[in-house]
Amino acid sequence: MNVHDSERMAGLLDQAGYEPTSDDRDADVIVINTCSVREHAEDKLYTRLGELRVLGEETGRPPMVAVAGCVAQQEGDALLTGTNGHVIDVVLGTQRVKMLPILLNKAAESSASAVDIAPWDDVGFPLGIARRSDPVKAYITIIEGCNDHCAFCVVPNTRGHERMRAKADILAEVQEAVESGRREVQLLGQIVNHYRAPDDPACDFAQLLREVDAIGGIERIRFASPHPRHAGTRLIEAIRDLPRVCKHLHLPLQSGSSRVLRAMRRRHTRDEYLDLVRRVREAIPNATLSTDIIVGFPGETSEDFDETLSLIRTVQYHSIFSFKYSVRPHTLASQRLPDDVSADEKTARIVALQSLQREIQTGLHERLVGTTHEVLVDHTSRRRQAEVAGRTTGNTVVNFPVPDAGNGRGAEDWIGRLVRVTIRRAGPYSVWGEVADSG
Asked: How many other CB atoms sit within 10 Å of the CB of residue 367?
């Protein structure tokens, strides 16, 4: 979602007459779009601001600096006094993206910084304005905000309450993505499967998937990120039945301990989660699963962590995103629970977790050797000139050499193509193969 917000801001600046540059020294305006879901991500902002302060001193023409995104929303005016002497010209909240050019003009005409973090319930955005950064995939927001207030999560504070986007606008943007040459769309929302169309109350998320699937020209449909407690039968059947919906489901777990899940306010138990996994696997045997895990949440014992490891062994995820718990401002955990798991213990637990997951992923990838899969090519290799990479419907990264590289066609010509690839070698994070049918 942050990537897509950046695409929207870039498009707005294009419309306002700005031109992009890859060199900071040439920039009149630099926009830093921030994340605060983890403390480490927030720290990167202050490092970047320090670099820009030095840049301004070296060039004698400091650029205007706009700080946008979740840290901007979280800190507001406090950013102006807490950045080690660097002057921020614009502070732009998550719900005010459309105001960026106006605020830059306001700051340019005044000696004061422009700050706008006000709530805004309108989640519409002008069609065709976003400058999409991916040649193959289009991100499309369907929900903004969240009402769940999980104890560890800052999102309800930084993204606001849940607001649904009109179905008609979503479908129009999918059609626009097709016309711009995109082969894949990814539907975005804090709890994406909680969607209910404000302009069609009968349309839930499963129905929205059906209507997106019916639009010609799209080859792949993905979505992020669903909540397990809203993943009902209709969603499972939609993933099973719709040919363009990818057979990959991201189901954030956070912890394998029911006791910790209760403290996190996740509103499901370990057994309920495992029952959902069972139902998904029974309905879609080839589905791959991924998840999010937090280690070291307040009160997490060694026994709780062992329950997380045992659940991971049971489910056999194809990938996980894992994090050490960090206190986030304005969250229920920060107000009610002491951060009582030591830094060393958090590190030991995440190392153990990632070691187990690496072993599982390697085993799952090794089972793919000798099988053939349809791969949507989305980038060229950074290491090998004649190699490209893409993903299967199950989200496995597949690398392979292009067979016609010596006939005047470069690897770039393969971007956006659907290719059948036979897997020949496996690693923990991706696999390698060869084209099975160049036609």
From this structure: 10
